[in-house]
Specification:
Family: Belongs to the bacterial solute-binding protein 1 family.
CATH topology of the largest domain: D-Maltodextrin-Binding Protein, domain 2
InterPro entries: Bact_solute-bd_prot1 (IPR050490), SBP (IPR006059)
Radius of gyration: 21 Å
Subcellular location: Periplasm
CATH class of the largest domain: Alpha Beta
Bound molecules: SN-glycerol-3-phosphate
Keywords: Signal, Transport
Number of helices: 19
Strand content: 5-15%
CATH architecture of the largest domain: 3-Layer(aba) Sandwich
Distance between the termini: 42 Å
Number of strands: 11
Helix content: 40-55%
CATH superfamily of the largest domain: Periplasmic binding protein-like II
Pfam family, one: SBP_bac_8
């Protein structure tokens, strides 16, 4: 039996489900055994894989979050593009089976898919209907605009229904990158980096500055509570304990929310927008991760990997994973299967993420981003946001620093990849 190592970043409920999915494949045949290993957060998993590659101890498959795409694409010689893998192994693979938002993010300029879509998400709003009701708000109506987020949060706090209005996961992904896409604002030149490595950051525009300044003001007033860097691990517990009435987080936080928020009625909504920004709401962008295949493994592992990917993309596996986790149904077939099963009717709110990424035809500003060294740039976004919260910089100063420090990394990346 050939063992295939799969390094991933799915902890908690998602990790348990991932293992169940792998077991389904392992039990379905006896030639290959996929061995999943949890390697920590997305940045930790990616760093571990790069170090392992240098030490020639790399796994065949590694799960890399969406913002690692630019770096992985440039790592020629280290990766086997998935379209090539499937072709070489004679396994049928139709990129058109995946949703356009997913295909667009992971294909090269010739339309070839480089990594295997597995878990694509988008951020949404979760809210506590019980707290809304206690505060005299309509529990069936989530806030649509940032003005309403402020107004509702004030009511919630003044009425004593909860201590805080809202929290958020991922300041980088949700309150900066998605905020920009949803308001049709660029975060960089060259179509947010899709046009090539000459791209530079521009995320210190008026809308982003206004939003960060508001977050600082709301944090000072207690309306908003910060959940920490990277994914914002401190945010979900504040929502589960009913300290904060709302949370903006990945659609894939669903599994955790369902498991932990047992004492109150859950509501779902789209991300808020500023109604004085023309073109908003545009559409949100995907997050989550894809599976990259690394070079340097024995041939039989690639044969098994192709078979495993075929299994992962099947409508049954995808629909099950999507419905459990809150990740988007990444293939049309998985979405259709869910409809046939009556899943969306029985689970109001479960289509919010999909409706939001498809709200409008994506523009250059809202189809995603592709920058090299972006994992490090995410770290800079968190650092500068924290500097702003502590009062040592204002929103403009913090975002200017993100651009300056980030562009130094982009210049370095461009030089290395000429
Ligand atoms: O928590 P996930 O898997 O939806 O990922 C969120 C972000 O896209 C990570 O960059």
């Amino acid at each position: 039996q050939t063992e295939i190592q799969w390094w991933h970043a799915m902890g908690g409920e998602l990790g348990t489900k991932l293992e169940e999915i792998v077991k389904g494949f392992n039990d379905s045949q006896d030639e290959y055994k996929v061995v999943p290993s949890y390697k920590g957060t997305y940045p930790e998993t990616m760093t571990a894989a790069i170090a392992a590659f240098r030490a020639k101890e790399q796994p065949a498959i590694v799960q890399v979050f969406e913002v690692g795409t630019g770096t992985m694409m440039a790592a020629q010689g280290a990766i086997v593009p998935v379209y090539q893998l499937m072709e070489e192994q004679g396994v049928e693979f139709d990129p058109a089976a995946f949703l356009p938002a997913v295909v667009g993010y992971y294909t090269d300029t010739d339309g070839n898919m480089l990594s295997m879509p597995f878990n694509s998400s988008t951020p949404i709003l979760y809210y506590n209907k019980d707290v809304f009701e206690k505060a005299g708000l309509d529990p069936e109506t989530p806030p649509k605009t940032w003005g309403e987020v402020e107004e509702f949060s004030n009511k919630i706090m003044e009425s004593g229904a909860a201590e805080c209005g809202f929290t958020t996961g991922w300041v980088s992904w949700i309150q900066t990158e998605n905020l920009s896409a949803f308001h049709n604002q660029p975060i960089g030149t060259e179509q947010n980096g899709f046009g090539g490595t000459a791209a530079r950051l521009t995320l210190n525009g008026d809308v982003q500055v206004k939003h960060w300044a508001n977050l600082k003001k709301w944090a000072d007033e207690g309306l908003f509570k910060y959940g920490g860097p990277v994914g914002g691990d401190d945010a979900p517990p504040m929502f589960y304990s009913q300290e904060c009435a709302m949370i903006m987080n990945s659609s894939a936080s669903l599994a955790g929310v369902v498991a932990n928020a047992k004492d109150f009625e859950l509501g779902f909504g789209m991300l808020p927008y500023y109604d004085d920004v023309e073109g908003a709401p545009q559409n949100s962008i995907i997050g989550g991760a894809t599976l990259w295949v690394l070079t340097g493994r024995p041939d039989e592992e690639y044969a098994g990997t192709a078979k495993f990917f075929e299994y992962l993309a099947s409508p049954e596996v995808q629909a099950d994973w999507h419905q459990f986790s809150g990740y988007l149904p990444i293939t049309q077939a998985a979405y259709d299967l869910g409809k046939e099963q009556g899943y969306y009717e029985e689970n109001p709110g479960s289509e919010v993420g999909l409706q939001q990424i498809t709200l409008n035809e994506p523009t250059e500003n809202s189809k995603g981003l592709r920058f090299g060294n972006y994992v490090q740039i995410r770290g800079i976004i968190d650092e500068e946001f924290e500097q702003m919260l502590s009062g040592s910089k204002d929103a403009q100063g913090a975002l200017d620093s993100v651009v300056e420090r980030g562009n130094a990394l982009l210049e370095e990346f461009e030089k290395q990849n000429q």
